[in-house]
Automatic annotation (TrEMBL), chain A:
Its main location: other. One of its GO terms (biological process) is rhamnose transmembrane transport. Keywords: Signal. The lineage of its organism: Bacteria, Bacillati, Actinomycetota, Actinomycetes, Kineosporiales. It comes from the Bacteria. It comes from Kineococcus xinjiangensis. This is Rhamnose transport system substrate-binding protein.
Automatic annotation (TrEMBL), chain B:
One of its GO terms (molecular function) is transmembrane transporter activity. The chain crosses the membrane at residues 31-51, 57-78, 85-105, 111-135, 147-166, 186-209, 230-249, 284-301, 313-332. One of its GO terms (cellular component) is plasma membrane. This is Autoinducer 2 import system permease protein LsrD. Keywords: Cell inner membrane, Cell membrane, Membrane, Transmembrane, Transmembrane helix, Transport. It comes from Kineococcus xinjiangensis. It holds the Pfam family BPD_transp_2.
Length: 362, 345
């Protein structure tokens, strides 16, 4: 039948098209690929070596591309970036997708290249998908700083890491020591049993607790609330039934800490059992005010953006190239040193308590 | 049964309209869209910094590619009065399978044809439900939209496969000889022309139009409408799978959520291009223009730092206009025709 033949022709045409596509190599497997050199990774710095005394030029066009716009957390990060860019006398711009997808971020990177921005600061939605575009930007002399969420190290110059695993684990152990009054039973309320971040932090916390200065603190259980509000609430209840003499609950997840605080604040344990861990000020404000929570910690999102802004400008000016050991000034945050793999660690998390919580809104 | 074949659809077999009349039909919405597209391209090149240069053209083409490719079979399907909403999920599932086979150690040259076969099978499943079981394609493909996307997560979970060979990923994003002509341009043009010819200049294409205009009439005229539809669903699956492969290579990232939501962008472009959602009416040049129009508008507005919200509003407004305008035009024409008729009396 003729109509079928026409359609088959189209079908065959599309197949032929692919054959042409596939004809550019013979039998490439993952294994054979591994022996070949990886994709070229350009360097964005004009100078091969850093010049620490280079001046940061006025009017740098510094763009921020967060994971998505209109996300309260991202907005605060970007606001910190804006502060830095204004201090540097640069031109700040904020672009980003509404949907937190990598493919829309790629379109925005391309736009930023076309706009001839001087620096791109990005929180990557997918470490790999943004790579080719970021490398195109770097090939055109636009340095790339990742913050919050890193891209593949091959396609950025510097990564602003909000906190190290060590830093957070130590903070959690210190909180446990302080809030238990130096001795007594503490429990951890984590996210899911296989949450990578939480498990790494808890591991460090345990190592810390094994040290002599923590001898009085006994970690009795790690419970899992699965980052589900209701389950975390029930797990808190169960912990207290099991260990009525518990001194503190440490929850290294924003969902867990809020649920634990809610349970304690509405029970007889209020004032007897301390809740701490990682949370956001807006979530925890009422529990800090009513005395359920004395203190908790989190990195400051504004400082992440602020530091990214300064790092980007320093890269563009040639003060740094992203190599380990180089140092740069980051305004009110002071001097930073680039670590291995181009990572810059923001510093220890900020501790929030009744005295400072009202200065934060996120 | 009354058979109403709209005159502007053109060629439902024997009653081919006069050339002048066909020109008149084309001069309506499709022509408006094509003119609008050219206008936007010219104005943007002149007024928007960075829009007109070669680098941007490459980016624009890369952004257009997935929507344009899938819009080709989608146009044909919508012309028959059906729809395929599972295209983006086929894209995602193909990418996921491609990623896991690659991790499993298979050669990319074997994986890509396998992926196209997979696309054909996924499309055939849609086609089976629609043509053999007689279920409405809207319902069927909403179902497979969820099903195929779910399978993609079964295959790859939340992992991403990112180490595809640079020879392939670089080819997709690169230009011929490092110049200004993107590698993808020629194959894309070939595909557009092939689909254009198939729809507008072959018996198969006339069969598609006739099927959409009136399934019953077409069947009485001896056309195997079910077979046409089945073939189109398979074709849509293959092209979506091809797009899935290109997507994974372009972004060097095979993930289960690749291309999520793309089906709506494709359907939007097809409708904006003047294809009637009820079938039987439309043209491929209109759809191609609509794809280019939407993408270049977005690109230009982004370069001008227009916010995302405004972009969404503009796209939505254009879509409403595309549905509204032909109806308004028809109403105006009818009124003037009846006015003329009464004056003649």
């Amino acid at each position: 039948m003729s109509s079928r033949r026409g359609l088959s022709l189209v079908l065959a045409g599309s197949l032929g098209l692919t054959m042409a596509l596939t004809a550019c190599g013979g039998g490439t497997t993952r294994e054979s690929q591994a022996q070949q050199p990886a994709a070229p990774a350009p360097s964005s710095s004009a100078a091969a070596s850093a010049d620490p005394s280079a001046e940061i030029p006025e009017g740098l066009k510094i763009a921020f591309l967060p994971k998505q716009l209109n996300n309260p957390y991202s907005d605060i990060e970007a606001a910190g970036g804006k502060e830095a860019v204004e201090e540097l006398g640069g031109e700040y711009s904020l672009v980003g997708p509404n949907d937190a997808s990598a493919s829309s971020q790629v379109s925005y990177i391309n736009t930023l290249i076309q706009q001839q921005q001087d620096v791109i600061n990005i929180a990557a939605n997918d470490p790999n998908a943004v790579c080719p575009s970021l490398n195109q930007a770097r090939a055109k002399g636009i340095p790339v700083v990742t913050f919050d969420s890193d891209a593949n190290p091959d396609c950025r110059d510097v990564f602003i890491n909000q906190a190290t695993t060590e830093g957070i684990g130590k903070t959690l152990a210190e909180q446990a020591l302080e809030l238990s009054g130096g001795s007594g039973k503490v429990a951890v309320l984590s996210a899911t049993a296989n949450a990578t971040n939480q498990n790494a932090w808890i591991e460090v916390m345990k190592e810390e607790l094994a040290k002599p200065e923590y001898a009085g603190v006994e970690l009795v259980e790690v419970a899992y609330g699965d980052d589900d509000d209701q389950k975390s609430f029930q797990q808190t209840q169960a912990l207290l039934q099991k260990y009525p003499d518990l001194k503190a609950i440490v929850s290294p997840t924003t969902v867990g800490i809020a649920a634990a605080a809610r349970y304690i604040s509405s029970s007889d344990y209020k004032g007897k059992v301390a809740v701490t861990g990682l949370g956001t000020p807006n979530q925890m404000r009422e529990y800090v005010k009513d005395g359920t929570v004395k203190e908790f910690a989190l990195w400051s999102p504004a400082d992440i953006g602020y530091l990214a802004g300064y790092a980007g400008a320093a890269l563009k000016a040639g003060q740094i190239t992203g190599a380990e050991g180089e140092t740069f000034e980051a305004g009110r945050l002071g001097e930073y040193t680039i670590g291995a793999d181009g990572e810059v660690v923001l510093g220890p998390p900020t501790t929030f308590d009744a005295s400072n919580i009202d200065q934060f809104d996120f | 049964m009354a058979v109403d074949v709209p005159s502007s659809t053109g060629t439902a077999g024997a009653a081919a309209p006069a050339p002048a009349r066909r020109l008149g039909a084309l001069a309506s919405w499709e022509a408006t869209i094509i003119a609008l597209t050219v206008l936007v391209l010219v104005i943007a090149s002149l007024t928007v910094d960075g829009f007109g240069d070669a680098g941007n053209a490459v980016f624009l083409l890369l952004d257009i590619t997935p929507i344009l490719l899938i819009a080709l079979p989608m146009t044909l399907i919508v012309m028959t009065g059906e729809i395929d909403l599972s295209v983006a999920s086929i894209l995602g599932l193909t990418g996921a399978v491609m990623g896991s086979l690659w991790v499993g150690g298979m050669a990319i040259e074997t994986i890509i044809p396998l992926c196209l076969v997979l696309g054909a099978v996924l499309g055939a499943v849609n086609g089976f439900f629609v043509t053999v079981l007689g279920l409405p394609s809207l319902a069927v493909t909403i179902g497979t939209l969820a099903l195929y996307r779910g399978l993609a997560y079964v295959v790859l979970g939340s992992n991403a496969v990112a180490d595809f060979p640079f020879a392939h990923t670089g080819w997709v994003t690169g230009t011929a000889g490092g110049g200004v002509v993107p590698n993808l341009l020629l194959p894309l043009l070939v595909a557009v022309v092939a689909f254009g010819i198939a729809l507008h200049a072959t018996p198969a294409g006339r069969g598609i139009v006739a099927t959409g205009a009136s399934d019953t009439a077409a069947r009485f005229a001896g056309l195997a409408t079910l077979r046409i539809k089945f073939t189109l669903f398979v074709l849509s699956g293959v092209v979506s799978a091809l797009t899935g492969v290109l997507w994974a290579l372009r972004y060097s990232s095979a993930r289960a959520d690749n291309g999520a939501g793309l089906e709506l962008a494709v359907v939007a472009a097809v409708l904006l291009g003047g294809v009637s959602i009820f079938g039987g009416k439309g043209s491929l040049p209109g759809v191609v223009a609509a794809v280019v129009l939407l993408a270049s508008l977005q690109n230009a507005l982004r370069l001008e730092n227009v916010s995302n919200e405004a972009l969404t509003v503009v796209t939505g407004g254009l879509l409403i206009a595309s549905v509204l305008a032909p109806n308004v035009l028809r109403a105006v024409r009818r009124r003037s025709a009846s006015a003329r008729a009464s004056r003649a009396r």
